[in-house]
Amino acid sequence: MLVLSYVEKTCSVCGNKFIVSGKIADRELFCTLGCFSRAMKDEPQSTVLEA
Asked: pLDDT tens track of the chain, all 51 residues?
């Protein structure tokens, strides 16, 4: 029988709580791609593609 463990983490950018697998709980994680982008000092920008 496979037993999975989960850990509650808190995003270091916005403070939201989220659940991750216990296998990766020791990594620095962010709740969304937007928070990851802000943490990397790369604000997401919209891009307009012209055909």
From this structure: 778 899 999 999 999 999 999 999 999 999 999 999 999 886 556 566 676
pTM value is 0.67
- CA of 15: how far to CAs of 1, 9, 38, in Å? 35, 9, 13
Q: Where are the domains of the chain?
A: 6-39
Return phi, psi of residue 29, to 5°.
Answer: -125, 155
Calpha distance 28→5 (Å, rounded): 18
Q: Are strands 17-21 and 6-10 parallel, antiparallel or unpaired?
A: antiparallel
